[in-house]
Amino acid sequence: MAALERAVVEHNELLALRRELDIASDIQRSFLPRTFPDPAAGGGFALHAAMVPAKEVGGDFYDFFSLDGDRLAVVIGDVSGKGVPAALYGAFAGELVRSRTIRRRYSRDHAGPAAMLASINSVLYERQLEEYYCTLLYSVFDFKHRTVTLANAALPYPVRKRADGLPATQIELPGVPLGSFPGSTYDEIVLDLRPGDVFVFCSDGVTEAQDAHFNEFGADRLLAIVDRLYDQPAQAIVDAIFEEVHAFRGECPPNDDTTAVVVRVAAI
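Structure (tokenized):
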């Protein structure tokens, strides 16, 4: 009887843990944008994104914010590790990015993406969670001046595809992860925007996805998807990335959280 009672207790504890993980997953999803800009409504762009954790919850996140009528900030981040600890750290990092970005709307602080990364790095480093760090790409699309400004903290290089018929390319923009070193500074790059430009931002759960033989999905496969589906809606490109990564893995479970964000520039 004692063994049966222990089994019942353990079963109930597992059910409670399952419920808590389900709640945590719901909370994490609530932190991510649930609706995306309708390209038919104008605004100069279309955007779509998705995040799938490797476990019930994960450390990837994305967000986008209107800085004013003509500028859009787009952020994608990836916290080291997986599961509940990464999700907690990711939630903190994501809300830190959001609060610092929103504060820019109501102040004279017009710091660019590189300064934003340096500021966020200082806060995360001060928390002294040495086993955790955050990779993050911060971009600002300025549709009035037809530019996009990017700064990167060790996320995979972003992809750009233009309407000129040339192949999609990666934008080489290195940087150190946030929270790793005090006083880190970041490079910033400014690119021109043209109607039809497509930008793709991904976490390393895409490029480092592995098949049964430990081969990685890689950047070349990602570039091929963008080249093939360049003229499709942003959602179609995001869906194709996830479908092809899933097919590449086959029966192998995901080895990391997976996130993709696609921005398509419309008439500007």
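The longest helix spans residues 2-31. The beta strands are 45-52, 60-66, 71-79, 134-142, 147-153, 159-161, 169-170, 189-192, 198-202, 258-265.
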